[in-house]
Amino acid sequence: MTSAPERKIKQTGCDVRFDNLTRQLYATDASIYQIEPIGAAFPKNAQQAAAVIRAAADTGVSIIPRGAGTSLSGGAIGEGLIVDFSRHNRQIGKLDVEKRSVRVGAGVVLDQLNDFLRPHGFCFGPDVATSARATLAGMIANNSSGARCPIYGTTADHVLSLEIVMADGRIEKVGPMHKSLRAERAKIDKLIRAQSAEMADRWPPGLIKRWPGYGIERFLRAPDNLNEILAGSEGTLAAIFSAEVKISPLPREKGLGLIFFASVGEAMQATVELLDLKPAAIEHIDRPLFDQTKAQLLFQAARDLLELDAKPCESILIVEFYEDVVERLSMLQARNLGLRTKILTDAAQMNLVWSVRKSGLSLLTGGIGPAKPVAFIEDAAVRPAQLPEYVRGLQLIMKPLGLEASYYGHAASGLLHVRPVLDLHSGSDLKKFRQVADQTSALVRQFKGSLSAEHGVGIARTEYMREQLGGELLGVMREIKHAFDPKNIFNPGKIFEVGSARCAGRTLQRGVPTRIDNHLRENFTRPLELPFQPVLAFAFKDRSFIGNLEQCNGCAGCRKDTPIMCPTFIATGDEVMSTRGRANIIRAALEMRVNGHDPLRSAELDAALSNCLSCKGCTPECPSNVNLALLKAEMLYARHQRDGLPLRERIFSSVDLLGRIGCAMPSLANASLNFRPLRALMEKTLGISAKRSLPHYTRERFDRWFARRKVGTSRCDVRTPQRGVPTRGKVILWDDTFVRYHEPHIGIAAVKVLEALGFEVALAENRECCGRPAFSQGNLDAAAKLGKHNVDLLNSAGSQLSSLRSATARQATNPPSSSYGAASNSPASAQLRLGKQPSAPPILFLEPSCWSMFVDDYRELKIENADNLAKHCFLFEKFVDDLLGQEPDALQFKNGSTTVAIHPHCHAKSLMNPAFMRRLVERLPGRKATVLDTGCCGMAGAFGALAEKYGLSVQVAQHLFDKIDNQPPGTEIIASGTSCRHQLTDLTNVRPKHMAELLAEAIA
Ligand SMILES: Cc1cc2nc3c(=O)[nH]c(=O)nc-3n(C[C@H](O)[C@H](O)[C@H](O)COP(=O)(O)OP(=O)(O)OC[C@H]3O[C@@H](n4cnc5c(N)ncnc54)[C@H](O)[C@@H]3O)c2cc1C
Ligand code: SF4
Ligand code: SF4
Fold it and tell me: Is the whole model's pTM more than 0.85, yes or no?
């Protein structure tokens, strides 16, 4: 039933949602806290924001302004109405180069702003690690800063004016140029002046990050400027709708000096010794952090560059210079600090190092098991010279409690993001949590440091505000709060301990103080229980469904605008379409926070799961490796086990069978697929979109063509191997469902390439479908059965040899040393050598989603010997590229002059770096290639064929279409995924090819 406040807020015309799905989505941010709001509003302009805030205030509903929700302190959650400024309000206004300023909407994301400014030679200085999703209003509200604080300062240093919505709905412009809020300014001025001595005593100079609470010491230096009070006010005074901000010229040059140490203490001491070199940044990372990059595809290149495996160390300082780079780097080297140094000036290499640093926080939380590095004392800063002593103090706190912690962060600013490893599910660790918090607050006070430097006070630090500020200064801040927000409407319970006065007509928490251990996420205090027995291994990490689900710490990395993760969020901007949204809703379902209290079936769960493309983009890109494709498959499977497998899912699981039937009578089958009344009926009864073309069946199946052809005489013009005999031994070509029944020309092209390379090609007789279609429907029993059949068929040497049907009339007699697997030093051959059967032939895949079944999902299905088989399975193009890398002349290609754009399949991207594809194409003389920065095409197997998902599928594809539109005219498009080619062929004029076709056509 709609309450009176809800009705009044809805009448404003703003998009406001009070449904349970929205309430659960916005119940958490990136902190350890959870509070369910009454709903969320998504204003499109300042007037809408004003109307909503006024209506909420009039009905006693509190307001929590929110950006991307990356707050680590619980600042972006609360019991009232969340006002999400990130959904709309992403306009960047006119750039004023002379004044060096630009106007931004509240929801503009930092990377978006910097992409806009870069071509003009400018940037926004403060560089939060969450730059891919943090909003400018969120940054202003938290007075965020980053690694380059020594030269750029904090966000507050860059605010020229603000457009704000006050608690009574007034829209005001504030800043030195504006005369607004005269009475408030006068009052605040008087209050602050009276406390100047107290401030000087409590806050001696030397700290370059912020003090907690409102910027009263800044206001003292710049009287009359309310920006100083509002920046850093954490949404407790007003809502920021837009801002005019200062911009900075891009640095002319950059260089990095990396110094490797045997201990954290030595690194801290060295920081002090490096400050005189005036670096732009000194960042510290330590072993608990960089150990998390082990076995992570995304970070392997960085690990190699830092030589972490060959030359172990305990801690690294990343020292960056912007001016006089060569000279200052050589001065750094001359100081002979630490175990060794490494100098980098190449932009790509420097970016690799920064990628590790920027992912630091999420990497740490990605550790396996219930104990995680917890954010609660992670934002304390001291003067840099105090760092060695401060770290010793922290270690003295941790040691008696037996706690480990990482000490990474902004060393040049004296801010270390220390996160003790605690299991918040356990009562004893909860006690330690409090002990550490209490003692750290006292330690910081002893150093006259700042307990909250850039992440906000939020829920995590409000309790300690009195100790940190003292009664006098806290009193001044309370008066300021009252001047702006007399009814305590804005973000109550943050900075000041008293929570919201009233919410939805109810009195909430009046007088209940905010405590660090109140409002913890429910799964900490009431451990999750599964109503089903998980069947998947979660083999890559965690080895547990709950373990992987709890990896989602809310950091919002999946809300970025660029692929691969998460394509549905990129397309829609909706929280529920992000990996975080999905993980939060699965948690809500298991905690019975969904309507109907059924953990396996609810509208909320459907909204979260049914739109996930199972593209696997999150697994490598999420720093904690949340694997939504697996979580979804497991939830669907549990549902099917209980409620039965629906007909549509059954049909989609059986595309291989449909292929066999279709190819038995292709004319009839194809005519049926084109017959509109039948398609309309299929849409009505099965929900298969009539707008979507369905793949036609071929007249001659690929396997049949393969069986009857004779080498050198084939009517399809497949050539004999070079020099007439297969010289490299045997390869098995996996003739997937689509190549076999729909696109045999791709298989034929692959055979041509492989034989030209000197391989004897064979198919796996009696192979079954790889099981991918069944897996993506959550039909895991069927997928496991198919997988087991295929693994058994291919894994044992006996069954391999008996099941192989030779492609040639001749028998291959090559000794193992002449085979590709044994002779080459490529990664592929190295893997082959590791296998139990070094002479077992490589198995090559044309379809990336089948390949990923063999190398990834069979392990997840716990299929015996799948690991061993995976060592022999290669993506066709990778195998060919590896070989040409060893022997560039193994194939002769015709000259050409085309440009080629490659759209890698998302399953390929999730398991390997696709950069090699460009190299492969550029082996063809005269070709220029680009690997498109794209994610899932939106087709995702059967997803794009579903009537109810067709629109979303097209929306997701737009990103790919835009990238293709930006290519020069005449560019050839390579897409090795069947779904991707289908989507492109259906919705554009492009006729994409498989990589095998490009190579086959180019063979001289
Ligand atoms: C992995 C990780 C790394 C981080 N690294 C850094 C870092 O390097 N440096 C740093 O400074 N911070 C860092 N943070 C903290 C956080 O990302 C920043 O504070 C960021 O600027 C918050 O932006 P947001 O859009 O997510 O704001 P939110 O989290 O949504 O909100 C933050 C605060 O701002 C308020 N707010 C949001 N929008 C408005 C508005 N329109 N009007 C008024 N108040 C508003 C909210 O009420 C809340 O109190 C990190 C966080 C994570 C999870
Ligand atoms: S899914 Fe990963 S990237 Fe997204 S919020 Fe969760 S932990 Fe962060
Ligand atoms: S599998 Fe793909 S669509 Fe699903 S949550 Fe992960 S990135 Fe998003």
Answer: yes
Output the CA torsion 444→448→454→460 (10° steps).
40
**CA–CA gap between residue 66 and residue 337 (Å, rounded):** 44
For residue 572, give Cα distances in angstroms to 44, 88, 880, 952, 979. 15, 11, 38, 8, 21
Least confident segment among 324-333, 490-499, 916-925: 490-499
- Residue-wise pLDDT for 227-243, tens only, equals 999 999 999 999 999 99
Task: Please give the C-alpha separations between residue 325 and each of 253, 552, 825, in angstroms, as whole numbers.
Answer: 7, 39, 39
**Does 716 score more than 70 pLDDT?**
no
Integer Cα distance of 135 and 132 in angstroms: 9
Q: Provide the pLDDT for residue 951.
A: 98
Atom of ligand 3 nearest to the CA of 565: 7
CA distance 222 to 203: 17
Ligand 2 pocket residue status of 556, Cβ below 6 Å: yes
Ligand 1 pocket check for 155: Cβ under 6 Å: no
Residue of 550, 584, 619, 626 to mutate, ligand 2, most atoms within 8 A of C-beta: 626
| Ligand 1, atom 14: closest residue by C-alpha | 455
Cα–ligand 3 centroid distance for 14 (angstroms): 29
Answer whether 579 contacts ligand 2 (Cβ < 6 A). yes
Does ligand 1 have an atom closer than 6 angstroms to the CB of 135? yes
For ligand 3, say whether the CB of 46 is within 6 Å of any of its atoms.
no
Q: What tokens were used for 4?
A: 């009176």
What are 162-207's pLDDT values in tens digits?
A: 999 999 999 999 999 999 999 999 999 999 999 999 999 999 999 9
Question: In angstroms, what is the span from residue 554 Cα to ligand 2's centroid?
Answer: 5
pLDDT(405) > 80: yes
Question: How confident is the model at residue 715, as a pLDDT?
Answer: 36
